[in-house]
């Protein structure tokens, strides 16, 4: 182990998590990146991070992750997932899957790593602008991400006495495989063309384009770093101006 700061990034096998792992590794952190597949592990390695196979909804996996890492300075909870469907089609299984992955895992990872973060460390939880808007096609996902905002605020208070900051980022349209899956799911649900849905969504963004995973990762890295030393309990929109507050 080097003397560099240590960061843990969940969901590092793709998308925002992968971009975050690469950015933090490039900034001198020793990064442990979780994934759930061999391909994900390969991407983590290419980001100059250390792959750890971990299903964040499995308590035993999370404990093994914490034991592998030991003391650390940053936790980024970027793992997430979604199911697109009409609100009347949601089942108990859908609710459990989406909440377990997007909310329960975030809570217990924040709890688990709270005792392992060094004084002055940081946690960044990846939420979504869906947490603050009405989105019937992803109602459960929106509810789970709203829970992430509440979780973030609670842990920000809990860990403040140790100088540990806890913040959240709220992406909107980021060019990832998850975003493409969302568009395809929405098209299947509504019967519309994927291209038409995408064009309409981008037209609603003041900057008129999708964001990149690295653009979101740069905000995460800022919140994790010394430049945000007086920022905690906040929810930062990364959405091209789509949602303003």
Summary of the model, kept short:
The chain has 245 residues and is α/β, with parallel strands linked by helices. Helices cover 46% and strands 17% of the residues.
Fraction in helix: 40-55%
Rg, rounded, reads 17 Å
Largest beta sheet: what is the strand line-up? Answer: 3-2-1-4-5-6-7
Architecture in CATH? 3-Layer(aba) Sandwich
Strand content: 15-25%
Structural class: alpha/beta
Provide the number of structural domains.
Answer: 1
Shape: globular
Helical segment tally?
8
CATH topology: Rossmann fold
**Tally of strands:** 7
State the name of the first-level CATH class.
Answer: Alpha Beta
Q: Please outline the major beta sheet.
A: 7 strands, parallel
Termini separation (Å)? 42 Å
By CATH, the superfamily comes out as NAD(P)-binding Rossmann-like Domain
Unreliable segments (pLDDT under 50, ≥5 consecutive)?
Answer: none
Which short descriptors sum up this protein?
245 residues; alpha/beta; Rossmann fold
Notes on the protein architecture:
Helix 1 (15-26) links the parallel strand 1 (6-10) and strand 2 (30-35). The protein has a seven-stranded parallel beta sheet with strand order 3-2-1-4-5-6-7, with helices on both faces. It has helices at residues 15-26, 38-46, 59-69, 92-114, 139-159, 177-190, 194-203, 213-224; strands spanning 6-10, 30-35, 50-53, 72-77, 117-126, 165-171, 235-238. Helix 3 (59-69) runs parallel beside helix 4 and helix 4 runs parallel beside helix 5. By secondary structure, it is an alpha/beta fold. It is built from eight helices and seven strands, in the order E-H-E-H-E-H-E-H-E-H-E-H-H-H-E. The protein is 46% helix and 17% strand. The chain is globular and about 50 Å long. The protein has a single domain (6-172, 212-238), classed as 3-Layer(aba) Sandwich (Rossmann fold), CATH 3.40.50.720.
